[in-house]
Amino acid sequence: MDLMADIEILKGVGPKTAEVLKKYGIRTVRDFFYNLPRDYENYEQPTSIAEIRPGKVVIKGKIDSLATRRARRRNLSVTEGIIKDDSGSIKVVWFNQGYRVRQFEAGKEYYFSGNFELRNGRYSLVTPSAVLASDVNPLSGLNPVYVAHGTLKSHDFKRLLHNSRDKFATIPDLLPTVKSGTRKDALFFAHFPNSLQSAEKARDYLAYEELFELILAAKLNRQENNKLKAIQIPFQNEAVKKFVKGLPFQLTVAQRRAAWEIIQDMEKKAPMNRLLQGDVGSGKTVVAAMAAFETVLAGVQVALLAPTAILANQHYENLKKLLEPFKITVALLTGATKNKKNLKDNIKNGQINFVIGTHALLTDDTEFKRLGLVIIDEQHRFGVEQRQKLMLKSPNKLAPHLLAMTATPIPRSLQLTLFGDLDVSILNELPKGRQPITTKIITEIETRAELYPKMEQVLRAGQQIYWVCKAINDDPRTETTSVKVRCEKLKKIFPKMRIEFLHGRMKPAEKDTIMEAFSSGEIQILVSTTVIEVGVDVPNATMMVIEDAEEYGLAQLHQLRGRVGRGLVASSCYLMTKGEMAPSRRLKELKKSTDGFYLAEVDLRMRGPGEIYGALQHGALDLRIASLTNTKLIHRAQIDVDKFLQNPENILKYKELMQGITKYQQITTLN
User: Fold this and answer.
1) SS3 of 64, please?
2) d(C-alpha 311, C-alpha 280), whole Å
3) How many CB atoms lie within 10 A of CB 151?
4) 486-524 as b/e, with b when 16 or more CB fall inside 10 Å?
5) Distance (Å, whole) CA 344 – CA 542
6) Which fold is adopted by the domain 437-593?
7) How far apart are the first and last CA of the chain?
8) Residue 82 bridge partners (DSSP)
C-alpha cells in the first residue's frame, strides 16, 4: 500500500472531507493512519442511572426529546434531552453543539461519558461524549477518542477508519530494526485495541519509530556538517591569556571550559556547530567575546544575530568595551542605524571586524569580505531559513563556524535527541558576586499589607522594580489586570515615582525609549508584559513582581525572574496569585530552586516536550506519540540508529523513512 498517496483514495473521503483534513495537515494516507486517538474511554462497566452519583460517569442508554434552544446570552446554544435506561432517566445538556440533535438514531443504545453535576438547581449529565454502543469493541469495552478537526468530530474519524480497516494488513514496515509486520499491527491496535495493554504496546512501538526518525535526522545533519570545509582559526595562546587578564572580572570554571571547547572546535577543518547553553546571568557574552577575539586575530570577520534591537544594542555596548581595547572594530546594524550604506560598505571591504545586528544583517545588500564565525543569540527565535541565510553570507566557499546561544536550559534528554547534530557547552555556575534571588508566593489579598511596604523599601534604597502583567488591555470576561490599569494604580500608590508601561504592540522606537529610560534609572517601576523576558539587563533592578503567576509556564517564570539579581544587591521575586487556592506545584518548584537546569527537567516531566521545544525554536517538533522523558526508549533508538548508519547505503533502501526524517532535519539543523 502506498502510504504517501493522497487522502482522497480512502473510502468515504470525498473532496469536502479531504479539504477539511488537509487544512489540519492530514494530506496523505500515512498522515491519516498516524492521526492516533488522544485517549481511550473505557465502557466495560457502565453505571446504571439508578446508581449514578455526582462526578465523572459512564452510562449506557437511549436518548429522547432532544432539542436545541438559544440561551439569553449571545452566541450560546443549549441542546437538552433525556437519557433513559432500564433503571431510570436523567437530563443531558450540551453547549454550542447543535449537531447533537442529528447525531442520534431513534431506539439505538449509546455510551455517554461526562460529568454528572448540579446545574441551575438540577443534576444533569453535562457535555458528555457519545458513541454508538455497537461501535465499541465488546471484548475490550474501549472507545478511541479523536481530536476534532473543524467539522470532523471523533465519530467521523472512527467511521472513516472502519471504512479502511482492511487497508491495515497491507501497511509496509518502516524501520529496518524491527521484525516484519510490527508497524501494521501497531497502527491497527492503536485504532482498534482489544485491551488497554494492546493499545499501550502499539503506542510504545510508534513512539520508538518517531524517536528513531528524529535521532537519525540529527545524526545525518552532523554527517552533512562534517563534510563542509571551514576557515581554520588557530589558537593564539598568549593573546588569549592577555585578553582574559584584561577582563574586569574572573572567569568561572564553566566559562573557561566552554571557551576552550569552542577554541578547539574552530581549529578544525569542519565548521563548528556548537550550542552554548547557560542559565540567565551565567556569562555567555564573555565566552562569545573570546570566540570573536580569536576569529578576528585570524583576519576573519564575525557576525552576531540578536532577536531584538534592545538586545543587539546591549551586546554592542558590552562587546565594544571588551574588544575595542584590542583594536577590534565593532559595529551595530539594526533597522534604526543611520548611514547604513556606508556601514555596509565597510563590512563588505573588511574594515568592520565584528558586526552585531538584528534582521538587518539578513538583507541581501549586507555582504562580508570573509565571514568566519556566526553567533546567534536566543537561536530559537530564528527560523531555519534565517539562520541559513546568514551562514551563506561569506563570499568564499568555506562555511563559517556557528555558535548558537540560549538562556533556556534544555533537559539532557532533549539535548540527546533534538540537538544530536550539535556539540553542547553548558554554563552551569554563576559569576562570583551574584546574589541569590529570594522567591515568595503571595495572594492578591496580601499585596497591600506585605508587598507595597517591601516595594517602598526597595525604591527608598534607589533601586528599581519590574511588575509583569499578562494583558495589554483589560478584558471584561477575565479578572486579569492589564499593564495600563496596573500602571495607573501604582502611580496612585507611589505618586513621587516615575512609573511607565511597556508591551509588545508599542512601536520599536517607543519601546527603546522606555527601556533606555529604565536602564538609566529615570523610571523607577516598569510595568510590562513578557516583552522583557529575554535580554534585558538592568543591574539596579532588584525586585520582580509577576501578577497572575499561575498563568505562566515554569520556564517562562524562571526567565522573567532572571531579569533581577543581575547586580551585587540581593534581589527578590514575588509570584502573585488570585483567590485562596493552594499554589500549584509549578510555583512551589520555582520558589524552591533558582537552578534553571533542574527546573527544565521538572517542566519536561510536568508538561512534556512540546512546551519546552516551543520555547526553544520556531517550527513544531510535533512528536505525536513519543515522550522525551522516556530515556530507555531514547537510548534504545540511539543504539539502533548507530547500527543502521554503519552501512550508509542502507539509507537509500528506505524511501519512506527518508521522506519522514526530512522535516526533522529541517527542524534540528542549525546550518
Assistant:
1) strand
2) 14
3) 10
4) bbeebbeebeebebbbbbeebeeeebbebbeebbeeebb
5) 39
6) Rossmann fold (3.40.50)
7) 36
8) 64, 91
Which residue ranges does the chain devote to CATH 2.40.50.140?
Answer: 44-135
pTM for this predicted structure: 0.69
Tell me the pLDDT band of 505, cut-offs 50, 70 and 90: confident
CATH topology of domain 237-427: Rossmann fold (3.40.50)
Q: What value does the mean pLDDT of the chain take? A: 85
Which of 123, 122, 119, 107 lies closest to 52 in space, CA to CA? 123
What contacts 333, CB < 8 A, 6 or more positions away? 340, 343, 344, 347, 355, 356, 357, 358, 360, 361, 366
Contact between 15 and 6 (Cβ < 8 Å): no
Shortest CA distance to 328 belongs to which of 368, 286, 292, 303? Answer: 292
- 397 vs 13, 207, 229, 232, 392, CA distance in Å? 50, 40, 8, 13, 9
The percentage of residues in the chain with a pLDDT greater than 70, rounded to a whole number, is: 89
Within the chain, which residue ranges are assigned CATH 3.40.50.300?
Answer: 237-427, 437-593
**The domain defined by 44-135 carries CATH number 2.40.50.140:** yes
What is the tens place of the pLDDT at every residue in 1-33? 788 899 999 999 999 999 999 998 899 999 999
The residue ranges of DSSP E strands in 351-490, in sequence order, are 354-357, 371-377, 401-406, 423-427, 437-443, 464-468
- Centre a 10 Å sphere on the Cβ of residue 462 and count the other Cβ atoms it contains: 11
d(CA 293, CA 396): 21
Sequence-ordered strand ranges (E) for 538-640: 541-546, 571-577
